[in-house]
From TrEMBL:
InterPro entries: Porin_dom_sf, Porin_O/P. Pfam families: Porin_O_P (PF07396). This is Porin. Residues 1-23 form the signal peptide. Residues 35-62 form a coiled coil.
Length: 496
């Protein structure tokens, strides 16, 4: 219709302009020149209109309800509203500048509207006037309290408090391809650098894109192990993530490449040790990878299949493989399953599998992992084994906050936030986990069963409560033999 209006207007103007000339009986050459000039004007106007509509189409791909708006309405709103980036799934909050895919980043760069500031999940996102530079502060505050009872050892029956995370950082992008993120944690009353990287992203085809990150990187390993501490459905990750792990832990300095398809992702990384001041010896070297696939995905259901591995060559300064894994919550260090003292480690290999999914508000996830440690001097290797089965149910209509791009959980998109006078989102959770170090002469074993409830006041504020029935059977350390008890833990968390 817009094209017809432009053509009609141009024709009318041409008729008015041509009237005096017609009265003087113009020649054929004059008429030909007039028609040629009118055609050039119409072509120029059409080219300008096509350009405007092309820009609006890019905005429409990332702006809710844009499909139902007319071009004039969108033009008016573009001047008054910042660009809104939709998430990779409607049940999670929109991604930050460092988590966009290249198509979303291009849409931001193609929609300059002056310097903009928009408020998302907790803190603002700043964009430059030309759309090239994007910046967002980020952080999380997780405050926990934990009380244990029922153990036959008085030293285990304690009540403690702690900061699970106290992070401040930033993330941003430069154009559609380059991005960065940096965070420090202060939870142990010390400055600890966690995520810190630079990255590049691009597309391979219309359906496949990739990114490459270099710096201090968070593991892509196991379902809960790849989920951030501010997004786990329980107060602490399960034993598959905390026990079947490289010796360096969750972070290492190196490079990671990730590839994303319509219903899958895969990653490979090579890293050294985490950030430290030790440069007198070689770093350990860890090569790791993970992939997930969603063979079934509808608006209300999904199936998740995943697998991962790591292989590490240990530094001469990291040969102690003694491990003591918490199983009754993070803030009771006495409730652990221990390996006993183990020295002379040479290398380790770990691998695991993930299977789960959701239907409506109900989700289920099973994980299993195994770690093989090889010792120097030709001594026999030993194995660590762990598995878990967890589930949750949203009572308030939300879908589980599953991120299909990464195959992990994110922050939920709460339908009826408390700050808007609503109820928020309520989730019931349950998990059983089992850990086995008994392949070692002094190794122990244990299990824990957890029931929990999560109340999400909005998409970035939550209150969590976990009740844990645990059992340990250690053959070394302070608390040996079979022991049972109960731990009740609670958390208030804010992520921005």
């Amino acid at each position: 219709m817009t094209h017809m209006m432009l053509r009609g207007g141009c024709a009318a103007l041409a008729l008015i302009a041509a009237t005096p000339a017609l009265a003087q009986t113009p020649s054929a050459d004059d008429l030909a020149a007039l028609v040629k000039a009118q055609a050039a004007e119409i072509a120029a106007l059409k080219a300008r209109l096509d350009k405007i509509e092309g820009q609006q189409a890019a905005v429409q791909a990332t702006t809710p309800h844009a499909a139902s708006q007319t071009a004039p309405q969108m033009a008016q709103q573009d001047a008054a509203q910042p660009l809104v980036i939709t998430p990779f799934a409607p049940q999670i909050v929109p991604p930050g500048p460092a988590d966009l895919d290249v198509a979303q980043a291009r849409a931001v760069a193609a929609n300059p509207a002056g310097v903009t500031t928009e408020w998302g999940a907790g803190l603002p996102v700043f964009r430059s006037a030309d759309g090239v530079f994007t910046y967002k502060p980020r952080g999380r505050i997780l405050v926990d309290v934990s009380s244990t009872m029922g153990s036959k050892y008085g030293g285990r029956n304690t009540t403690t408090t702690g900061m699970r995370a106290l992070r401040l950082g930033l993330e941003g992008g430069v154009g559609p391809h380059f991005f960065y993120q940096f965070e420090s944690d202060f939870s142990e009353n010390e400055v600890d650098i966690v995520t810190a990287f630079l990255g590049y992203r691009n597309k391979i085809s219309s359906k496949v894109d990739y990114d490459v990150r270099a710096g201090h990187l968070f593991n892509d390993r196991a379902f809960e192990g790849s989920t951030g501490s501010d997004s786990t459905p329980f107060l602490e990750r399960g034993v598959v993530s905390t026990a079947i792990i490289p010796q360096r832990g969750f972070y290492g300095i190196g490079i990671m490449g990730r590839m994303f398809g319509p219903n899958w992702h895969a990653s490979l990384s090579v890293t050294g040790d985490r950030v430290d001041g030790e440069q007198a010896t070689n770093d350990s070297r860890t090569f790791s990878g993970r992939a997930h696939w969603n063979p079934i995905r509808t608006d209300r259901s999904l199936l998740h299949v995943g697998g991962w591995f790591f292989d590490e060559a240990l530094s001469s300064a990291a040969t102690t493989l003694t491990r003591s894994t918490v199983i009754g919550g993070r803030f009771n260090g006495a409730v652990r399953v221990t390996t006993g003292e183990l020295l002379g480690g040479r290398s380790t290999t770990g691998y695991g599998a993930e299977l789960g999914g959701y239907v409506g508000g109900l989700w289920v996830m099973g994980e299993a992992g195994r770690r093989i440690a090889r010792l120097d001097g030709g001594r026999p290797s030993f194995e660590s084994k762990a598995w878990s089965l967890s589930s949750g149910l949203f009572l308030t209509g939300e879908l589980p906050p599953y991120n299909p791009r990464l195959g992990s959980f994110g922050q939920p998109n709460v339908l009826d936030p408390v700050l808007d006078g609503g109820l928020g989102a309520i989730e019931l959770t349950a998990r059983y986990e089992n850990l086995d170090y008994t392949d070692l002469v002094l190794g122990g074993d244990g299990w824990a069963a957890t029931l929990g409830v999560n109340w999400y006041l909005n998409s970035f504020t939550r209150i969590q409560l976990n009740g844990i029935q645990w059992h340990t059977n250690n053959r070394a350390g302070t608390y040996t033999g079979g022991d049972d008890g109960q731990t009740v833990s609670a958390r208030v968390g804010v992520t921005f």
